[in-house]
């Protein structure tokens, strides 16, 4: 049933109702002088009341049938036939319909605000419906893989459908969804970052350090230096001053290493009083030795009375990335081995293990 037939049927019911009412009024006038004319009036009023109820019920049933029949059809949106606006189902959803036959466009009133159209643009697209269709199709082509396009700070999804005589579609504002998604992603990133940070020293923990070193090695597995650092005589601090004082010393050492290392260097505390540093590029041997000596001397000054009274210092084991040592676990193994030799040789020293051209050489400095 189309709109014209609907109107014809409604008109027919009006006409039938009017005829019946006219007949009843004529009957009333004819019975005017009857002895029991007031009873006929009561009967007439009751009959008219029933006819009116019947009339509105029929109109209601016809409209319901019409809406149900066109519930999934785009012409449902033109129920207000004399307006160019579609009833708004939700403020975040806009709908539009273009009829090729009469070159007319119908849309919900919020479409301009969703698309960010000013008054001039609205008037231009209103006068040229074909341009409106091209404009919508062009926006749809610009959507990303998530079927979203950003317009004036809003994230929109556009779905269009081309039929034989009609072009229709909907525009959905997903800005709030994107805000929630972004917040959730940021929260997950924050949780992930916190899970990689040592709560005491604020440098990477074992998991975070290993993950970042492996990422560096994936990008370049031919360069790099791994350092294993261990605090000498750290137990004496806990024994003489308590564990809280020991925690302060660990924090002080972590701040010292962070200050004296470059931003590209990766620093981690893998447990207890042991730290690891990974330099993602190769240093000349002379330059590395100078840095190691300077690092040990400056740390002695930083530790102050801990160094003088308790002989708290730092031993360092170093290994270069080489042909046979190019993954995290082998780097950590040989750096720890070098650290062992440094502590065995008298502490407060550094020991370098390096491997060139598949030949292992060890050097005590």
UniProtKB/TrEMBL annotation:
GO terms for molecular function: diguanylate cyclase activity. One of its GO terms (cellular component) is plasma membrane. Signal peptide: none annotated. Residues 222-355 form the GGDEF domain. GO terms for biological process: cell adhesion involved in single-species biofilm formation; negative regulation of bacterial-type flagellum-dependent cell motility. SUPFAM superfamilies: Nucleotide cyclase (SSF55073). The keyword Transmembrane applies. Pfam families: GGDEF. It comes from the Bacteria. Keywords: Membrane, Transmembrane, Transmembrane helix. CDD domains: GGDEF (cd01949). The chain crosses the membrane at residues 12-30, 36-63. This is GGDEF domain-containing protein. It comes from Massilimicrobiota timonensis.
């Amino acid at each position: 049933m189309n709109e014209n037939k609907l109107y014809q049927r409604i008109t027919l019911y009006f006409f039938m109702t009017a005829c019946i009412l006219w007949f009843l009024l004529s009957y009333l006038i004819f019975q005017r002088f009857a002895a029991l004319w007031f009873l006929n009036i009561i009967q007439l009023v009751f009959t008219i009341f029933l006819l009116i109820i019947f009339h509105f019920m029929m109109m209601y049933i016809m409209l319901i049938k019409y809406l149900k029949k066109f519930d999934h059809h785009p012409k449902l949106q033109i129920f207000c036939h004399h307006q160019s606006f579609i009833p708004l189902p939700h403020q975040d959803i806009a709908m539009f319909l273009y009829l090729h036959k009469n070159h007319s466009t119908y849309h919900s009133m919020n479409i301009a605000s969703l698309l960010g159209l000013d008054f001039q643009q609205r008037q231009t697209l209103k006068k040229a419906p074909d341009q409106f269709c091209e404009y919508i199709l062009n926006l749809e082509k610009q959507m990303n893989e998530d079927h979203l396009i950003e317009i004036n700070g809003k994230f929109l999804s556009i779905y269009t459908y081309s039929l034989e005589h009609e072009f229709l579609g909907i525009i959905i504002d997903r800005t709030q969804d994107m805000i929630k998604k972004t917040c959730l992603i940021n929260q997950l990133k924050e949780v992930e970052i916190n899970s990689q940070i040592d709560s005491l020293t604020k440098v990477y923990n074992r998991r975070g350090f290993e993950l970042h070193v492996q990422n560096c090695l994936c990008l370049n597995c031919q360069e790099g230096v791994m350092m294993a650092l261990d605090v000498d005589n750290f137990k004496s601090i806990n024994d003489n001053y308590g564990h809280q004082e020991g925690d302060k010393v660990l924090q002080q050492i972590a701040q010292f290493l962070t200050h004296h290392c470059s931003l590209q260097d990766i620093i981690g505390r893998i447990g207890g009083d042991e730290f690891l540093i990974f330099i993602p590029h190769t240093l000349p041997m002379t330059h590395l030795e100078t840095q190691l000596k300077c690092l040990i001397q400056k740390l002695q000054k930083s530790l102050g009375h801990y160094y003088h009274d308790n002989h708290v210092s730092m031993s360092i084991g170093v290994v270069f990335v080489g042909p046979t040592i190019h993954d995290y676990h082998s780097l950590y193994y040989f750096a720890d081995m070098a650290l062992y030799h440094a502590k065995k040789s008298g502490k407060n020293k550094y020991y370098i293990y390096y491997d060139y051209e598949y030949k292992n050489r060890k050097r005590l400095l």
